[in-house]
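Subject: complex prediction, re-run

Hi both,

The earlier run crashed halfway through, so I resubmitted it with identical inputs.
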Amino acid sequence: MSGPWPEGTRCGVAFSVDFDGPTPYVWAHRGEDRRVLGELEQRRFGPRRGVWRVLEMLERLDLKASFYVPGMMAISHPDAVEAMLSAGHEVGLHGHEHEPVQDLEGEAVTEVMDRSLAALEAAGATGPFGYRSPSWEMTDEAWQALKAVPVTYDSSLMGSDLPYLVDGLLEVPVDWAVDDAVFYRYVPGSNRPPVAPQALTDAWALEIEAAKRYETLLVITIHPWISGRPARALALEKLLERFLGDPDIWWATVGEVAGRFTDTPSLLEVPKLHTGHDTP
Amino acid sequence: MSGPWPEGTRCGVAFSVDFDGPTPYVWAHRGEDRRVLGELEQRRFGPRRGVWRVLEMLERLDLKASFYVPGMMAISHPDAVEAMLSAGHEVGLHGHEHEPVQDLEGEAVTEVMDRSLAALEAAGATGPFGYRSPSWEMTDEAWQALKAVPVTYDSSLMGSDLPYLVDGLLEVPVDWAVDDAVFYRYVPGSNRPPVAPQALTDAWALEIEAAKRYETLLVITIHPWISGRPARALALEKLLERFLGDPDIWWATVGEVAGRFTDTPSLLEVPKLHTGHDTP
Amino acid sequence: MSGPWPEGTRCGVAFSVDFDGPTPYVWAHRGEDRRVLGELEQRRFGPRRGVWRVLEMLERLDLKASFYVPGMMAISHPDAVEAMLSAGHEVGLHGHEHEPVQDLEGEAVTEVMDRSLAALEAAGATGPFGYRSPSWEMTDEAWQALKAVPVTYDSSLMGSDLPYLVDGLLEVPVDWAVDDAVFYRYVPGSNRPPVAPQALTDAWALEIEAAKRYETLLVITIHPWISGRPARALALEKLLERFLGDPDIWWATVGEVAGRFTDTPSLLEVPKLHTGHDTP
Amino acid sequence: MSGPWPEGTRCGVAFSVDFDGPTPYVWAHRGEDRRVLGELEQRRFGPRRGVWRVLEMLERLDLKASFYVPGMMAISHPDAVEAMLSAGHEVGLHGHEHEPVQDLEGEAVTEVMDRSLAALEAAGATGPFGYRSPSWEMTDEAWQALKAVPVTYDSSLMGSDLPYLVDGLLEVPVDWAVDDAVFYRYVPGSNRPPVAPQALTDAWALEIEAAKRYETLLVITIHPWISGRPARALALEKLLERFLGDPDIWWATVGEVAGRFTDTPSLLEVPKLHTGHDTP
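This time it finished cleanly. Structure:
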């Protein structure tokens, strides 16, 4: 049998970009008087350098990506959002100040949704939007808020390796194993060094091979302040170049993946056994 | 001299599967009002996708495995237990809600044992059963409870690289170095990235080579919500394919290993020196 | 277009050395009665063995480096400072007792600056000096103190991969990915083993290749008590040998990099798109 | 110039074994009523299996090692000590119950020393002994106690890569980078997986090459409950086989290294510059 992918392809691969910049730091330290600049400047690398390098790389590779942009980033960096839109990339919701949804309750949940949506629209993006949760967490309350907007899909959970329904809303799942921050982010005092870029992209190459093997979906995620740095960008570009011409892969934005499964709901039915093809 | 393995083989290798799914999360958060969905959905990958991919792989490889199933998983996923049994795999005890034994005292110890046993039987499994402790911990109290059931063996401790007796009960030892969770599980905020699948299976290949070299036992353990993901499944399948035809290896379920040493207790006698063969 | 580097080169690479020795330990444990010698002796390896091995290596390679020296180290090890200066290396400010700037407030900020400056001058170094913050942190208060000295540049933040201005002062940025301590330092109880030297210098080789590819700046940092150990020194020497003759690289001290951009401020203007050259 | 090593050799390499077994766990949990067996059984692998595999390997390789044995281990496992002695290995002091010296004060410091010394002698070892501190820590008080015994050397600190004097007592230094526990030990909940054996012995091979290059000392340390496991033993044996015939290396016990520098104190004088030979 063949999987749920377009005729002639064997898997779906989407390249997504969480354009957080300084917002997670600013949120985590809200209400504090004194600024400590180390992490802040490190995160400013994102809008200052990283996002432009990523956009340029995508242009060179002729690849469309999905950018998830906190409202505050759209307000403070409209030029970046404009560049995303004019290049034909998807722009989606990602909170307003990158507030983890488990930190919010009651009206704050919908307020954040409304403010972030307004900020994206003010920057020129037009909905309906897809959604990715800051910190890739979710609460029941936030889930209801997503359905109320409504968003076209969520892309924050990890319960499958194919698009699937959670309480009636389409989930286009992510995976820690293909999130650059998990491997590269260095937190002072954490005693955990960044992984070498070559080692990470070798692992991600296997992720792509495995998506082909088992006819699954792979949603890669990077952050401009992390993977926009030179060595990581170089390794990433080599990885993408290697697989972009592969006829077995359907390269699509997260929104395009969501659209395919929304348009043809029968594709969501997965047989329990004999997933993937029979001849390894 | 030759080791305690069947004529013509040099070591024993067992492939075991801890089918936890969401139970460890549910247990750890028992009594809490609010659900945070990130880890929960990640764990639901196990029964939703991972276990079927693992079962299919085992069928393709014609390999019998030992599945340790918490009672609650047998109740909520009887189709998975049925598939294990009908394919000829071993099904063993693994707590009821994946309660670490050091969290239990008094009657709770035996209650958990009774409930988990009843749940496995209700799902069609027939005892006597082997046992693997959730979290691979053990207390004196839990040990006495195991002997009272009685179980045919325990497979939770690490005191040898051959089956051995602990207070009269047979231990078929495990090892952190061949537990996938140790290498792959990502805990947000932990600052520890998952190991690349190729790197892990390279290390496990050496584990198998070393078992042959020193004529020891190797009990590999995976979790469907972790190693059932595509890249890890692909690397694992390649590893198993490489060694399944090796005539030096006795591939057996944990229960079969236990049976061999229970039937012939003299095999448990290990000389202190000159373990392993003399010609490297 | 060509980047901001000297005619015929494509990037800038600086090799810097934070000569901390025991000062961070002494500062962290100030006011304690009892000494625990393990980490202290480990850090004493720096002035006892490491710094001499590094100096010798630099002499053999004919490479000029930038040494950042806490005032207390200049006082206790004047012979090391003398050797740095007589070999033509840059010597810069690095606090007095390696006090993280976020631990200081009010007059303490400027006192530390004054004392460390006096100690470097007493050891024979002549200003104006460049500055690197202990722990690579910064506060607004410390930034004002730097501008008041004034220092010729700061080299402690990570907001770009090219020199840039922060509130009117030139920043020559560093990066955790090219700081040896992040990868090699072992803290007992941290459960994080040191990275293998070959693995680190392989990653750093990619960092240099990427600087060439994107026409950026790379400021490598080592610590004598860490990278002065034999295996790390050997791997480092091989890395430097490999790239020292590369005509695409402008090897310079951090002070020389700063001087170039201070002399020609127009080099600080970076186009948002099309950074780096067009033909990969 | 040539280093402080025997004519025709370029470095010293010692292989040492800390035979802790369960003692660190028992000490850390002293006074507790309830036993949790996981780590305890894991550590019992040392005297049950690991130490015999290590002894057998050393016999096969014809290599003499230095075993540091807590008094309690000598009392509970006299057969292991007897095997060490009869094979010609060095046996040295390592605390009584593996008490970290920073946990002890006043009379307890000397009491532990006396008890551990008596236990080694009761097991057939004859002094004077060398000493290695449990946990590789040291206090001023413990240092005075060492000098009072007196011990022939200490091998617990990291302040040089050659033997050196600390307050009149000879230190034969160790290094975290060549301690197996740092790389292999898995602590549940730590989120740090063990390093692959091949990766560790590749790094250690560079350590040996670097000792040859810089004419330094390398003291490797393993623990039987950790490196006595099959895959690690196999990788270790391959490493030792590779370098045992190397004419540039003086393989010696830690005691023999100490003896050489005690007999010829002028060897302790190290020139600041031009350590190591001139032609890489």
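The longest strand of chain A covers residues 11-18.

- K.
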